[in-house]
């Protein structure tokens, strides 16, 4: 190993923290954008609570557009926008911007899918009792779909972990950057193996936690 043993684990620890920071912050901002977008997609679709024949198709097309762009292309394409937002195009903060743009429409679709699983009969019964559309959304749709939402957000987190590793190609920091800089470019195979194993471990932990949390919510 070219990297001294004393330098190896501190680098791994720093890269892991960077990955967790990227995923955590990008998830937070993607949820802030994606959750309301998903709700709007559901309530404005034809035949639903707040049908809007103009807003729904426009929003639907925009979300489809951004979801169609591969992350590695999106990462490079919005570099000027990233510089405007955070003042740089490299590092953990810079990687967070494209991660949010990548994840927000994805989360919107996952939220839409979860909310559409709620039985229309439950919604109709609540509506017949005189509840307003947004009361139905937050007192019926979201609570009824919460278990599914948790599972879908778990999927989004796992997607963000994978995307954060790809951000290493443009100096995004984290485990992906470490794997490319040392494991690939310097042929440090053991570093590559460790970073891959850590990414796999992160995915397993997130999936396990998401499954258990969803099961707890479902039982209530």
Automatic annotation (TrEMBL):
Subcellular location: Cell membrane
Bilayer-crossing regions: 20-42, 54-78, 84-107, 149-171, 191-210
Positions of the ABC transmembrane type-1 domain: 16-210
Name of one Pfam family that matches: BPD_transp_1
Membrane topology annotation: Multi-pass membrane protein
Keyword terms, alphabetized: Cell membrane, Membrane, Transmembrane, Transmembrane helix, Transport
Signal peptide: none
Record-given protein name: ABC transporter permease
């Amino acid at each position: 190993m070219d990297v001294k043993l004393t330098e190896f684990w501190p680098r791994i620890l720093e890269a892991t923290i960077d990955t967790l920071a990227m995923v955590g912050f990008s998830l937070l901002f993607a949820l802030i954008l994606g959750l309301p977008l998903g709700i709007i997609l559901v309530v404005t679709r034809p035949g639903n609570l707040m049908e809007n024949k103009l807003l729904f198709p426009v929003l639907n097309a925009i979300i489809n557009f951004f979801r169609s762009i591969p992350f590695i292309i999106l990462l490079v394409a919005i570099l000027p926008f990233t510089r405007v937002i955070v003042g740089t195009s490299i590092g953990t903060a810079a990687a967070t911007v494209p991660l949010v743009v990548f994840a927000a429409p994805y989360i919107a679709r996952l939220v839409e899918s979860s909310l559409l699983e709620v039985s229309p009969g439950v919604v109709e019964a609540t509506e017949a009792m005189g509840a307003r559309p947004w009361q139905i959304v937050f007192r019926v749709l979201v609570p009824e779909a919460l278990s599914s939402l948790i599972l879908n957000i778990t999927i989004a987190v796992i997607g963000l972990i994978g995307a954060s590793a790809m951000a290493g190609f443009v100096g995004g920091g984290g485990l992906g950057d470490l794997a490319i800089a040392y494991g690939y470019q310097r042929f440090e195979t053991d570093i590559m193996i460790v970073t891959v194993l850590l990414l796999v471990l992160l995915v397993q932990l997130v999936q396990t936690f998401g499954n258990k949390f969803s099961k707890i919510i479902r039982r209530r």
